[in-house]
Every structure is written in C-alpha cells, then in structure tokens.
C-alpha cells in the first residue's frame, strides 16, 4: 500500500487467483468482498498488488490459519478485518519480539 499498511491473507487456492479476485473487487468497488477494496474505497490509497509476497505455504488448513494469525499479530499495522484464528496466549511472548525488532519488507520505517 502507498500508506505502509499491510494485508495478511490465507488461501488454499492459487495465490494468483486470489490476488485477481482482490484486484477485481477493488476495481469494481465491491467493498464487502475484500478488505483491500474497502481500504481503497475509504482512503483512495493505491494497492500494490504486484508487491504481494507469500510468507508461508502449507496444504494443511489449520497450519495456514495459524500462520495467518501469527503474521497478523506480527504486523499490527494491517487492514485485516479480524485477527484470524485465535492464538493461544502462550504464543504471544514468542512472537512479541518480532513485532518490535524484526522489520519487514512492508515496514515503511525500514
């Protein structure tokens, strides 16, 4: 995003297809179908679909859901509509250092 925010998504399908769906929703202003479309509608910010990154891969549903929840927690500057799969409190102290000291490609202050 041009604003430095991130969107963390999870899909068991092709990433290319999922990005195409988000692009279509954004272009057609289908804000109920995509948090990206909603962000664009509300702010006018550009969405840089070509900068999408795969952060983890898994064919297993719960592994993907857990990885998504961890990444959402790691990136508090996100536009996700929810926090994803509920993370047990035991994981948060392990993830917390990465929220504070692990810059990412998405961090505008990097």
The tally of strands reads 0
Shape: globular
Round the mean pLDDT to the nearest integer and report it.
88
Termini gap: 15 Å
Give structural notes.
Helix 1 runs parallel beside helix 2. Residues 105-110 have low confidence and may be disordered. It is globular and about 40 Å long. The protein has 4 helices and no strands. The protein has 110 residues and is an all-alpha fold.
Which helices and strands occur, and which strands form pairs?
Blueprint: H1 15-27, H2 35-43, H3 61-74, H4 92-101
Question: What would the keywords be for this entry?
Answer:
single chain; 110 residues; mainly alpha; 42% helix; globular; disordered C terminus
Summarize this entry quickly.
The protein has helices at 15-27, 35-43, 61-74, 92-101. It is an all-alpha fold and 110 residues long.
